[in-house]
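Troubleshooting log. The previous structure file for this entry was overwritten by mistake, so regenerating from the original sequence record. Sequence copied from the archived sheet and checked twice against the printout by T.R.
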Amino acid sequence: MQSANLRHQRHSALLFIDLDNFKSLNDKHGHGQGDLLLQQVAQRFAACVRDEDTVARWVVTNSW
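Regenerated output below.
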């Protein structure tokens, strides 16, 4: 990705965000409330970026 950015004189960024205590909130108030919180977070991020930018959720499960 870095070499492509240099060739095309573009910039990129990767941001990982962890919502503190999200699992506790989800367990205590239910998945519906957890989903609403995730939707609000996504809407706020989407409002801060351009149409051609990408906002995505990466899910990691720890069930090994």
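DSSP finds three helices and no strands in the chain. Archived copy saved in two places this time.
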